[in-house]
């Protein structure tokens, strides 16, 4: 039994909906299961949006703190992970709007060689292409970037992206079209 609640401890195989109900009633163990279950995809999302591991970790931690406080307001209209994506995206957008301008490219250390089979030329070309993609993503309007990351990196369907971004599917399609077009233009030299 979970201490003082008379409820058995949460099992990792319980659905999010039940864990969220238990957590809203104050069951910290259930919330801990949700945190473990959803941390990795939320960190990946935040990292793609912010470009910094530290900022991504801060955003996800803030999102979980916010979710814990707002669990009584969560009425299960959306899946728990969709609700968490929404909170995380909003936190990332807030952090991006407050952050200072990015460092110049020469301030970023060079990545280590990938493996023994790589040539210095190939490694340099891959690093330059990755840097170009990161720059192009950073230049996208925040809404376009959020939609692109949710679709292309997280694989969410348009309907779910619309829920996360508080828009409609038509807006998501338009943002994705503009984001893809911008990225395609930016990456033309790398084809």
Give a brief description:
This protein has helices at residues 16-24, 28-50, 53-70, 80-98, 120-139, 142-153, 158-165, 169-186.
The amount of beta strand, in percent, is under 5%
How confident overall, as mean pLDDT?
83
The biggest beta sheet reads: none
Terminal Cα separation, in Å?
A: 59 Å
What's the number of helices?
Answer: 8
Computed structural class: mainly alpha
State the low-pLDDT regions, or none: none
The assembly state of the depicted protein chains is single chain
H and E order: HHHHHHHH
Question: Helicity level, as a percent range?
Answer: 55-70%
Overall geometry comes to: globular
Instruction: Give me the Rg, rounded.
Output: 19 Å
- By DSSP, the count of extended strands is 0
Describe the protein in words:
- The protein has 191 residues and is mostly helical.
- 66% of the residues lie in helices and 0% in strands.
- The chain has eight helices and no strands.
- Helix 2 (28-50) packs across helix 6.
- The mean pLDDT is 83.
Characteristic key phrases:
mainly alpha, 0% strand, globular
Protein topology:
Elements: H1 16-24, H2 28-50, H3 53-70, H4 80-98, H5 120-139, H6 142-153, H7 158-165, H8 169-186
Helix pairs in contact: 1-2, 2-3, 2-4, 2-6, 3-4, 4-7, 5-8, 6-7, 6-8, 7-8
